[in-house]
Amino acid sequence: MSEPLKTRLATDLIHAGRIRTNLEENGEALFLTSGFTYESAEMAESVFANQADHYQYSRFANPTVTMLQDCLAKIDGAEACRATATGMAAVHAAVMCGIKAGDRVVASRALFGSCHWIISTLLPQYGIESVFVDGGDLEGWKAALSQPAALVLLESPSNPMLDIVDLRAVSALAHEAGAIVVVDNVFATPLLQKPLELGADVVVYSATKHMDGQGRVLGGAVLSSKKWIEEVFQPFFRNTGPSISPFNAWVILKGLETMQLRVKAQSENAEVVARFLEGHPKIQRALYPTLDSFKQRELAMSQMSGGGTLVAFELKGSKAEAFRMMNAFRIITISNNLGDTKSLATHPATTTHMKIGPGERAKLGITDGTIRLSVGLEDARDLIEDLTQALDQV
Ligand SMILES: *Cc1c(COP(=O)(O)O)cnc(C)c1O
C-alpha cells in the first residue's frame, strides 16, 4: 500500500471521507435508511457485541453521515467527529455528556442565545454552577478559573458584536483548572480558525450556517479526539439521539464542496461592506475583525486567517432609524440566519437578543441602533448601492 497523499483544504472539501459503493457512483450515495440488516442471527449478535464492523441503526451511525463526519474531521484537524441534527443539539450534547451535579462551568457572556440559555438556565436545574465572564477580559477568565472547573464554553468571534476570546490563553487557564474547552466556531468556520490547534479540546458547529450556507437544512457537528468522542460523547449521543437525518447530512456534504469558495468571496464582500459602513456619516461605528479600528484586531489576526462573513454596525440613532434602514433594503433581506449566500440583516435587540433583556444587552454592547449583517455572495457593488439607498432613507 502506498502512503496516503498529503492533500490540501480545497481537495479535502471535495474528497475527504467520501466512500463509493460497488456501483461506482460519482455523486455520494444518500443512504436514506433508518436501519441495516444482518444475514444471520449470529451476525446480529456479533455486531451488538462489537465484534463485527457493520452499520446497525441510523441513530448510532449511517454511511452518508459518516462521509460528512470524516470530511469535517479532516478539514478541522480533529481525530473524530459526530454530526448532529442542529447546531444546538451539538452544543447541548457536547456540554452535557461529560458534566455532573456539583461541577462548575465557565462561559463567555457573549454566546449565541440558546447556548446562553443552556449555561444560565438549564445547567443550574441539574445542580451545575455556571459562571459568565466577559470574553475579552483575561483577568476575568483568570479569576473564574482560579477554582476548579469541569468545562469552558466560548464563542469567538461572538454573535453579534464579534468579540474575540484569546483561545490560547483561555485554553491554558482552563486546563490548569481541570476543565475541557469547548469552542463554538460557527462565526469563524473551520476555514478561518482551527481551535483545536490553538488549545481547545472540542469544537462545535452549526452546519446550518456556512457548511450548508444556502438556506436549506439544519445540522451540527462535534469534533474532538478519538478518545473523547468514543468514551465520553458517543454513549450520550447514541442513547439520547440527537442524530442528523442522512438527507440533511447529504445536503451539507454537497455544501462543503463549495464552502471555501463561498466563505472566501463572502468574506471579501464583508470587508468591502464594513469599510463602506465605517466611512458613512450616519454610522456610529462598524465592527469587522480586519478593520484598523477594530479594538481586538491584533488578537483576531493571531488566531484567524480572515475576518469572516459577518459585520456588525451601529447607526447614529435608535430603533426607529434601524428599522427604517432595514425596511428600506431591496436586496438585503431581514432574517436571523447567517452564513448564507443571500445577504441577511438582523436587529439583535428586538430578535435574537430580545430575551436577555436591556441590562445584559448593554453589557454586550448591543444598542437599539445595532444591526448585524451576514454578507452574502451578491456583487459587492450592488450591496453597497443597497446600503447607500437604505441609509439615504434614515
Ligand atoms: C446558529 C448558531 C447556533 C445554533 O445552531 P442551529 O443549527 O440553529 O441549532 C449555535 N451557535 C452559533 C454561534 C450559531 O450561529
TrEMBL record:
Could you confirm whether the keyword Transit peptide appears in this record?
no
One GO MF term: pyridoxal phosphate binding
Q: Sorted alphabetically, which CDD domains does this protein's record hold?
A: CGS_like
Reaction(s) catalysed by this chain's protein: O-succinyl-L-homoserine + hydrogen sulfide = L-homocysteine + succinate
Per the UniProt entry, what is one GO biological process?
Answer: homocysteine biosynthetic process
Record-level GO cellular component terms: cytoplasm
Describe, as the record does, how this protein assembles with itself and its partners.
Homotetramer.
Role this protein plays = Catalyzes the formation of L-homocysteine from O-succinyl-L-homoserine (OSHS) and hydrogen sulfide.
Q: Which HAMAP family match?
A: MetZ
Similarity comment text for this entry? Belongs to the trans-sulfuration enzymes family. MetZ subfamily.
* Protein name, per record: O-succinylhomoserine sulfhydrylase
Protein species of origin = Acidocella aminolytica 101 = DSM 11237
